[in-house]
DNA sequence: ATGAACCTTCCCATGATGGCAAAGTCAACC
DNA sequence: GGTTGACTTTGCCATCATGGGAAGGTTCAT
C-alpha cells in the first residue's frame, strides 16, 4: 500500500483530509498506555479492543478514548486479570446499566485464584527453605535437598 | 514396525529374548511416577531424561532406575523447579563429586524467585481487596473497581 | 536524496501441559 | 482363529501472554 500522505497529527499543524486531531501512532499509544505496540496489535487481533483507525497509508491511529481503553487494559493486566476477564471488565465498563455486583464478583473470583496460587507457592517455598536449611552448602556431596528429591514417596516422610 | 513379539514383563512370566525383568510400559511408568505418559515422552524428546529402552515392537520400557529418575523429576516439578533447573539438579544428582553448595545455591535462587512472585501476587491481592471492599456490590452501577481501572494514572492516587 | 525512525504483516519461540487422530500391538476371551 | 478392548506409537494443534525478527513501506528532517 502506498497512497497519498496523511499523518496522524500530534502537533498543532492542521490536516485537511481527515479530522484526526490529537490522534497518535501506535508507538506513542504504547508509550502513553504502557502497553507495547506488539501487544496493542495483538489485542486488536483477538478482539479485545476495537480495530484502530488507519491513516491513508495504513498506519494505525489512536484517539484519546483509545488510549483510555488501553490504560484500562494495562491496569487490569497489572492487577493480574486475564484477557478473558478483562474482556468482561471492558464490557461492564461500557455498560451504563451494569450492576457493581458483577464487577465485584469477578474481582473476588480473581482474588480467590490469586490466593490459591499464593498458597501453593508458599508451600513450595516453605518446603524448600526447610531443605535448604538442612543442607550444609559446602564442598561435601551430602545433600538433603537431593535426598528429598530422590526419596521414595512412600517410605521417607515428606511431612516437613 | 511390526516385528516379533516381546513385551515388557511386569508379571512373573519369563521372557527369553531380552532380560527385561521388572521393566514396565509407559502407562505403568506414568502411574508409578505421577508424570503423565505424555510428559514422559516430552521429557525424553527434550533430553531431560535419556531415551527409554524399547521392546522389539517399539514400546518404551522403563526399569526401576528410570522410575526413580521420573519420580525425582516429578518431585522437583511439584516444588516448582523449571525444566532447566531440574536438568541441573539431575546432573548434580548423578555427580558423586558434587558439592552440596551448588545444590543449595540453585535452591536458594529458586526460593528467591518464588518470593518475588509471591510478593507480586500479594500486592495484586492487596490492591484488589482494597477495591472490592470499597465496592457496594449491589445493583447500582457505581463501582470503585472500574473507576480505578479507568483512572488516569497521574491524577488519581493509586496508593492504597 | 539519503538516512533514521517509524510503521506494516507474517512467522516463530517461549514453558509446561493437554487433546485428538490414525495407526500399530498386546492379551484375553470365545 | 478372530474379535475386542486397552494399551502404545507418532504427529500436529492448542493453550496464555509476550517477545523477536525479517522484509518491506512511510514519514520526516537533514
Secondary structure class of chain A reads: mainly alpha
CATH topology type of the largest domain in chain A: Multidrug-efflux Transporter Regulator, Chain: A, Domain 2
On the 0-100 scale, what is the average pLDDT of chain A? 86
| Largest sheet report of chain A | 2 strands, antiparallel
Low-confidence stretches of chain A: 1-7, 9-20
| Amino-to-carboxy terminus distance of chain A | 65 Å
Count of DSSP E strands of chain A?
A: 2
Characterize the quaternary organization of these chains: homodimer
Radius of gyration of CA atoms of chain A, rounded to a whole number? 26 Å
Number of separate structural domains of chain A: 2
Look at the structure and give the CATH class of the largest domain in chain A: Mainly Alpha
N-to-C order of helices and strands of chain A: HHEEHHHH
Strand content of chain A: under 5%
The CATH architecture designation of the largest domain in chain A is: Orthogonal Bundle
Inertia-based shape of chain A: elongated
List strands and helices in order, with pairings:
Two copies of one chain form a homodimer.
Chain A: H1 26-33, H2 37-45, E1 53-54, E2 60-61, H3 64-78, H4 83-93, H5 100-134, H6 144-150
Antiparallel strand pairs in A: 1-2
The structure holds a DNA duplex (30 and 30 nucleotides).
Features:
homodimer, 160 residues, mainly alpha, Multidrug-efflux Transporter Regulator, Chain: A, Domain 2, 2 domains, two-stranded antiparallel ribbon, 2 strands, 2% strand, disordered N terminus, DNA-binding
Verbal overview:
- The structure is a homodimer of 160-residue chains.
- By secondary structure, chain A is an all-alpha fold.
- The first copy, chain A, has two domains: 1-98, Multidrug-efflux Transporter Regulator, Chain: A, Domain 2, CATH 1.10.1660; 101-160.
- In chain A, 53% of the residues lie in helices and 2% in strands.
- Chain A has helices at 26-33, 37-45, 64-78, 83-93, 100-134, 144-150, and strands at residues 53-54, 60-61.
- Chain A has a two-stranded antiparallel ribbon with strand order 1-2.
- In chain A, strand 1 (53-54) and strand 2 form a beta hairpin.
- The longest helix of chain A is centred in the C-terminal third of the chain and has 35 residues, at 100-134.
- Chain A binds a DNA duplex (30 and 30 nucleotides) through helix 2.
